[in-house]
Design goal:
Aminopeptidase; alpha+beta; six-stranded mixed sheet
């Protein structure tokens, strides 16, 4: 990330990125993501500001079951760029890709219950809350839960399935 004072925020949201210490470690991670992409195991995409060509976050898609097909989506935006619609636009475009190109039947999103921005975004995108695992994780002595959201192809506006 571009802002050095953002380390705490990164650790709480994207430990994988926050733990990078050198350019070599970053290159290794990028090559790992490239191999996952080619193997259709995980799709990790950077989120960039259009006008400034600045990296401000990432979105990842993980196939759950190719035979359904179902996927899990997750997003992260640098704390300094929250509330600007960046995550919403990026996630919406990824959902279009999932439903229109990969012919997903179902997409789920799982997030911390301590991240209201994230679960409110899921709701604005049209996801339905499907469950809440209360206090199921601990980090640094603090308990938090996970909230699960789901969306079917018939529920995403603009998809062929939703139009039928």
């Amino acid at each position: 990330m571009e802002r050095n004072n953002n380390c705490q925020f990164l650790w709480a949201n994207v430990e994988e990125v926050a733990s990078l210490k050198t350019k070599t470690e970053a290159e290794i991670m990028v090559r790992k993501h490239e191999a996952e992409w080619v193997g259709r195991l995980r799709f990790v995409m950077g989120v960039w500001l259009k006008d400034e060509n600045k990296y401000v976050g990432q979105i990842w898609i993980e196939p759950d079951k190719w035979d359904v097909p179902s996927f899990e989506i997750g997003w992260f935006v640098d704390g300094g760029y929250e509330g600007m619609g960046v995550a919403a636009e990026s996630a919406r475009r990824c959902l279009e890709f999932l439903f229109d190109n990969l012919k997903a039947h179902r997409v789920s999103a799982i997030m911390r219950d301590t991240s209201p921005r994230s679960w409110k975004l899921a709701e604005r995108l049209g996801f339905r809350r499907e469950g809440h695992l209360r206090e199921c994780r601990v980090e640094n002595g603090i308990r938090y839960g996970l909230v699960r959201y789901g969306m079917l192809n018939t529920e995403f506006p603009g998809t062929v399935a939703a139009a039928i």
